[in-house]
Amino acid sequence: MRLPVLFILLTVMIDSMGIGLIIPVMPDLLREVTGGGLSQAAIWGGLLTTSFAVMQFLFGPVVGGLSDRYGRRPILLVSLAVMALDYTVMALAGSIWLLLAGRIVGGITAATQSAASAYMADLSEDGKRAQGFGLIGAAFGLGFVIGPLIGGVLGEFGTRAPFWAAAGLAAANGLLGYFVLKETVTDTIRRPFDWRRANPLGTFRALSRLPGITRGLVIFFLYQVAFNVYPSVWAYFGAARFGWDPGMIGLSLGLFGVMMAVVQGGLIRLVLTRLGERGTVLYGLIFDIAAFGAIAFVTSGALALLLTPLAALGAVITPALQGIMSRTVGADRQGELQGALTSAGAVAMIVSPLLMTAVFAAFTAPESPVYFPGAPFLVSLGLICVALIVFLLPQRDSAVA
Predict the structure, then answer these.
(1) Total domain count, the chain
(2) Exposed, middle or buried, 11 (CB in 10 Å: 0-12/13-18/19+)?
(3) Nearest to residue 21, comparing CAs of 192, 209, 150, 137?
(4) Domain carrying residue 386
(5) Spatial distance between the Cα atoms of 69 and 353, rounded to a whole number of angstroms
(6) pTM for the full model?
(7) Is residue 198 part of a domain?
């Protein structure tokens, strides 16, 4: 594997590790900082995640547009340096407000996922971009494996240890990128930076004129809202339904990440070859409906551990949709498209944590008339049903069809 591609995959993996590292300790950390109970911690966790997502939403198109103009290399390297500093600040934070500030800065640095995806698109042939995006998804999944596992182990040494680990990983990867990352944006495909399009609404407006993009973005958004039920409430769901500690929560998320890496790094190639991009999206949506329904009602911790990796089999949706939409735009707009997808995913991260944690709190609070920790997963099931309907509606363009 070429070193620049390895760096891109490591960058995505470390982004996901940085999130996964801290998930197992967040319930304890938030209860430690706020002095409240688990339900209150879940609400604060939703607000922290939402603030992170708001920054991704606002800065995704900016970063994507800047990478189209100035190149992928400087954007990625600066982001990793700021990310390392941000995790250091969070490791030292003694109040909920400093944690909130850290998540805001972290959301800005995480917006560079658009530049990483655009770099992969630059290096991939038109017919193989879905496979390239699958590798990025696999790297994300692998980070989701390693992050929670390490976070669960480090959590035994204190709630701050995972933040120090995340800071060190970001700094080390930035150093690697400085030596191996080569620029892919040439004068041939360089696009002038325009502030009118370097905002989410301007980007969506410009891309919506292309056939298939609007429908693809809607499906992508609905899927992301549903999928984000895992990082939003899984730690709280595991603690409430099964009495899991941080180590067991990390293990369960690790199993999920392993399967995501297998699906998006290898299995998706077989699925794409056999079903095509449209069939792959259809398969993923149907499988997710079954998975969310099963997890919502599971009462056995052992059975939940079996269902967790199986639920990742629906993770073929994102790279297949990205491949469909990437073929619609030109080489000079890959950063813009990935910025739009980053913003759409960020909006989902804004909506999903607030929605899912509110539903979780409503069905687990002491005064709740019905105790049902799995309620958020039924919400996700409904969203995937809507996405399936949108996908199957008759369409006049050929991009998604």
Answers:
(1) 1
(2) buried
(3) 150
(4) 3-180+213-392
(5) 33
(6) 0.65
(7) no
